[in-house]
Amino acid sequence: MSSGSISTPKPTQTAEDRFAVATQWQLTWWRFRKHKLAVASGIIVIAFYVIVVLADFLAYADPHATDSKRSHIPPQDIHFFDNGVFKPYVYGLTQKRDLRTFKLSYQPSLDRKVYLAFYTEGYSYNFLGLFPSNKHLVGLVDARPEDGIFILGTDLVGRDLWSRIMVATRISLTIGLAGVTVSLFLGILLGGMSAVYGGIVDTVIQRVIEILRSMPTIPLWMGLAAALPNSWSVIQVYFAITIIISFLGWTDLARVVRGKFLALRSEDFVTAAELAGASQYRIIFTHMLPSFLSHIIAATSLALPAMIISETSLSFLGLGLRPPAISWGILLQDAQNIETLALAPWLLTAAVPVILVILAFNFLGDGLRDAADPYG
Amino acid sequence: MPQTPMVDHPDHEAGRSPSATSPLLSVRGLKTYFKLDEGIVRAVDGVSFDLFAGRTLGIVGESGCGKSISARSILGIVDRPGKIEGGEIWLQQESEDSPAIDLLQLPHEGAEMRAIRGKEIALVFQEPMASFSHYYTIGNQIMEAILLHSTASDAAARARAIELLGMVGVPNPERRVDEYPFQLSGGLRQRVMMAMALACDPRILIADEPTTALDVTTQAQVLNLLQRIQKERGLSVILITHDMGVVAEMADDVVVMYLGRAVEKGPVDEIFHDPKHPYTQALLRSIPSIMAKPRTKLATIEGSIPHPFARPSGCPFHPRCPDAIKGLCDVTEPPTHALRPDRAVSCFLYGDAS
Amino acid sequence: MLAYIARRAVLAILTMAAISVFAFIIIQLPPGDFVDAYIANLSASGSSVSMEEAKSLRALYGLDQPIYVQYMKWMSRVLVGDFGESMEWHRPVAEVIGDRLWLTIVLSLSALLLTWGIALPIGIYSAVRQYSALDYLFTSISFIGLAVPNFLLALVIMYFSFVLFGANVGGLFSSEFDLAPWSVAKVWDLVKHLPLPAVILALAGTAQLIRIMRANLLDELRKPYVVTARAKGMPEARVIWKYPVRAALNPFASTIAYLFPYLVSGSIIISLVLSLPTVGPLLLKALIAQDMFLAGTIVLLLGVMTVIGTFISDLVLMWVDPRIRFQMD
User: How far is residue B154's CA from residue B177's CA, in Å, rounded to a whole number?
Assistant: First the structure.
């Protein structure tokens, strides 16, 4: 048998060296890159957070503006080419009332094209609370007051669904992030204490975690959320809901932190640092933390979807955020009964971002978790 | 496949083979490959050896040289993605008149092959802790082997299990039979493992690093037990180990493996007193000896085992070989030279020139 | 073994105590006390309560005493089955809840059985035939199951059954049985209505369990004891069922512990969408109307129920795992 028949790829010595001297972060990144689905999910997540920042810019109609003449307008087609030239337009709508059922219906008037323009002026908003603006990604040119863009249609009181979803994304995703931040703080604090001190502290914290995990969450949340005074402002409710959903959410993170911490403490490099006389503080922060930071990031991205579902569920029940706040749950609340849904099925499109974000975070978290164990 | 000369086939000069009979088990050009995303790992790459009735064949080599995979290949239980890609494994049938059968021609999952596993050829593993399921009593797991290959009743199988446990030196077998593996010590577990392997009176016992996980005294006990059982039952044993000491004590014949190849074969005395292959020589030098002068450094083999995907061209040992011939060893694979019917080496230092 | 049971029992009791504290907090949370709400409620319906009456009511419920005394009084009444009076319904809380608690349990338990029934074979199949077409299919479905909150799934199914069949698939009983007393026919009617909500409720858990079962079994399949069994000459299918599946079942049994609270939670929210007569809609109404004894009792009972479920799962786990049986002594 000659060596020529060996088809095995031969990594060069330099490739092996590269692997051997790479930092933990490089290894994690290399492994993560191989998960195509996780990388794609990461991009989707980033895109959603771009929406969070640019929500008002991406919306084209005031999400709070009601208009009884625009009730339940179905999603409208956008035509991109006018006589072969890229010049997006929509048709103007004519309103008709069915004289037998008294229901309003809308028909596109094919003789009247209304052209779209980019980076136009629309309703005024405050960009991230920094400066006032009235710029929007799209708008209509030379439109009559009754014309409008209705990419995803409108709700019962004539608010534009697309614009509302944009603004809802901001609240739903930041509340998830805020919830995870609080959970992470509690998780690292209590999980860390549990691992560092051991003994009675560990026992108590572990029992508390077990108790919290065996409780049915939704009824508890409902009870707590229902007790928020009606007089509270949107901001107050927002923070209260954040605290309520992170109140039970920290337990998973605490378990991850404790488990990893204990596993690492018996590793040789930690023993070596101890023998070298490093302080407890130094060992934890310079030797151990970098090793399990990647695990914590993975656990966090897996915890986020649960937070988002919690907020969405509570708001859907009418016990979470309250109008005029707009979140995905609040949008879905409109689609709660079957009669409305039969009349305006497009209201369910508010479910699409929920599902997309949860999937993306799950895949991202899975990819990160696999990548966090670069030698595994 | 470019054929390597296989002049050591016992059929050629049967009269001079060690036991003067044909081998009980004859492995010819066995190839077991693992096809992974990163490439193909040739865990076993054209290995041949013979096991004669009543004798012990030691297979030695560093970890990763393919000795355990060879053992599993014989039983046809290589885990995915491993696959036997070529070779022959001839098993002499119970009655001397029947022709030998090639196990690789039998369907892996067929009844014939299953009847050979455990019944004709039994396996003892290196990890006695992980090799038992913790959800069944040891009695259950021993009886299972008996019930699979015979028509014995449950009660008879149980009685046999207790008898086997007593035979391998497990104290209180009547009580132990109902215990779970995690209730036993490591040494006891290895004895139970042995009892399980012997349950159906196999002709061949493959012991895969049977003592690696045990402490030294227990090792000695287990090896003694193995020797005793072999004598009592006329078992043929394939002993797989990385420990040259164990080989010296237990084996009659030796196969030295390196990176999926058998680099040297021969009777145990010759391998130890007149090693031919530079790898065998290096292995023997690295055994610590109480006869050595104090403060001399223990010899080690230069370099390390190459990465499985980056197997060296030519003779796989050439990057670590002190006697490598430039332009030859790193280009061409050495053929197997039969020095005598029972003695072979794959190295350019021998062959035509010698 | 006894030590294990004792430890689990103590933990269960502690959990129940913690839940009772939460329930009590929920009852106490709205501004003003129960008597204020009661008076407001009564005066809304036309009658009035004098200051003396209010005072005696406060004394009766111990509202003039420190909070922990109030808790103890409440608990001592709860322990004998007196959950107080629902303000909205003007009837004892126990009576208002009635069958709804049992229907919640029936729904959650059916979802649990369904979850196992589906996840177990699929998980085994996916692990044994890793990377096969069906494995990919099941994996994708289970990802969707994970990502779609069950109330959304309920909404979508409601919508499609309405559009396609013109039927409202909600409810647990046909209209003629809604208020009828229990009978064989009514039970049969329940059996016919149960599958849809149970499937909706089970989907997310099933998705999770398939992934757990697949991962566990893949781990177990690589363990040496599987090779041992094969080396004995056992047929492959028997090897897999007797050894690795048995080992992978163990963590499976322990999933009741977290799956059950999760299903109970889920049943609340899908009951609202599908208008099922469980405690879900009642809890929501009670919370919105600030009918706190009713709401607190529902939270308490749901909590206690899941704790009992968890405790049973611990016992099952002990039963199936010889290591716990023999090493905990």
Answer: 13
The backbone torsions φ and ψ at residue A87, rounded to the nearest 5 degrees and listed phi first, read -155, 85
Domain spans of chain B, in order of start: 55-76+107-120+202-353
User: How many DSSP H helices and E strands does chain B contain?
Assistant: 10, 12
**Residue A204 belongs to what H/E stretch?**
helix A199-213
Nearest Cα residue in chain A from C258: A214
Homologous superfamily (CATH) for B55-76+107-120+202-353: P-loop containing nucleotide triphosphate hydrolases (3.40.50.300)
In terms of pTM, does the model score above 0.80?
A: no
The DSSP H or E segment spanning B264 is strand B261-267
Contact yes or no for C167/C161 (Cβ under 8 A): yes
Category of A263 on φ-ψ map: left (φ > 0), alpha (ψ -120 to 50) or beta = alpha
A-C Cβ pairs (cutoff 8 Å, strict)? 133
Of B2, B46, B309, the CB nearest to A2: B2
A338, A355, A358: residue with CB nearest C168: A338
Cα dihedral sign, A292-A294-A299-A304: positive
Report which of residues B20 and A149 the model is more confident about.
A149
Spell out where chain A has E strands.
79-82, 85-97, 104-127, 131-140
ipTM exceeding 0.85, yes/no: no
**What's the pLDDT tens digit per position in A306-320?**
888 888 988 888 888
Of B46, B309, B331, the CB nearest to A11: B309
Instruction: Name which of B77, B175, B205 to mutate to probe chain C: the one with the most chain C Cβ atoms within 10 A of its Cβ.
Output: B77
- Angstrom distance (rounded) from CA A304 to CA A310: 10
Chains with ≥3 CB–CB distances under 8 Å to C: A, B
Report which of B121, B126, B242 is spatially closest to residue B193, judged by C-alpha positions: B126
C-alpha pair distances (Å), C284 with each of A233, B247, B321, C82, C290: 22, 76, 80, 22, 10
Give A124 to chain B, closest Cα distance, Å. 56
| Alpha-carbon gap, residue C209 to C146, rounded angstroms | 10
DSSP state of B260: T
- To test the contact with chain C by mutation, choose from A45, A215, A247 the residue with the greatest count of C C-beta atoms within 10 A, namely A215
CB contacts, 8 Å: A5 with chain B:
2
Band (A6; pLDDT cuts 50, 70, 90): very low
Domain ranges for chain C:
99-285
Rg (C-alpha) for chain A, rounded Å, is 27
- DSSP code per residue over B79-103: PTTEEEEEEEEEE--SSTTSPPEEG
Per DSSP, helices labelled H in C222-291 are: 224-231, 236-242, 244-253, 256-273, 279-288
Terminal CA-to-CA distance of chain A, rounded, Å? 34
Lowest mean pLDDT among A134-143, A332-341, C60-69: C60-69
Residue B354 — pLDDT band, cuts 50, 70, 90? very low
Strand pairing category for C91-92 and C85-86 = antiparallel
The alpha carbon of residue A276 and the mean position of all alpha carbons in its chain are separated, in whole angstroms, by: 44
CB contact under 8 A, A16 and B2: no
For the record, the structure tokens of B179 come out as 């215990």
C99-285: what CATH class? mainly alpha
- What share of chain C in percent tops pLDDT 90? 2
